[in-house]
Amino acid sequence: MEEPLSAAGPPQGGKRPLGGQQAEGAAWEPTCAQAGPAPDRAAIVLVDPTRVGGALAGASRVPRGLQRLAGPVLVLVLWQVLSSLDVFDPRTTPAPGRVLATAYDLVASGALQSHLAVSLMRVLQGLALGLFIGTVSAVAAGLTRWGENLVDANMEVLRAVPNFALLPVLIAWFGIGEEPKVALITLSVLVAIYINTFSAIRNVDAGLVEAARSFGVRQRELITTVILPGSLPGFLVGLRLALTGAWLALIFAETINAPVGLGRMMSDAREYFRIDVIFVLLAVYAVLGLASLALVRWLERRLLVWRRAFDGT
């Protein structure tokens, strides 16, 4: 004889009779829950992804800025190891220890600080002028058709012509003083700022603009609350490229007719074959570039808090 089924359901099959009543030979349908435990089945645990992300972030005690230095530190370690193994010729590629000793001598004598101060002043002047001219030109060309007709073609010409090729013309116009050097840096900055900001303004979602207009937003409010905030990411990309272009223009400008500056130090080191001094100056340019990048990242964290973007895994 078959054992009778209890009201709780079948003892082993995990099924209940169709129609809610027991009958001989009746079909059984699977139930969602079983009376007893099921050790042969894996348990499904729902985890909040925000808690997982917070736990992973809390587990990493190293600041994100220091984590980004892992690549340069690895290069330095590899450089030191290869120098210790005599893979590099010390006459052409000095070891990091020798470069550090030369940097200490330059700092102790005050030569590095004096040249660096002059170079920083030139970059700040050119960056300020380039930011102002480039931003005003991009806003005028991006918001109006007449501004685009007057400005855009000229900026494209400056973009097509290498700025370094304009240095002889700048010297002929302004002489061999500070003006041509600052002007060269200004040209490098304003072209990068204009191209990226103008493109960002024109790529603002037209649906957002039409939605704002349908709610009765005035033109001035439309520009300040929709268009300009929407173009801010492109402006910051242009700022990053502008800072890089400013340092490149500084190097080239100071190698010609510059009595003082990092570029002048580079020219003198090349003339006297001071490879260690050249490596020190390269390290200074690298630190300045990393500092500029850190500044732009700081601005992005402060100004783009409203934007959700992929930040890697």
From TrEMBL:
Residues of the ABC transmembrane type-1 domain: 112-296
Region (Disordered): 1-26
Intracellular or extracellular location(s): Cell membrane
Main location: membrane
TM regions (residue ranges): 123-144, 156-176, 182-201, 222-252, 272-299
Alphabetical list of InterPro entries matching this protein: MetI-like (IPR000515), MetI-like_sf (IPR035906)
Identification of the protein by name: ABC transporter permease
Species of the source: Verticiella sediminum
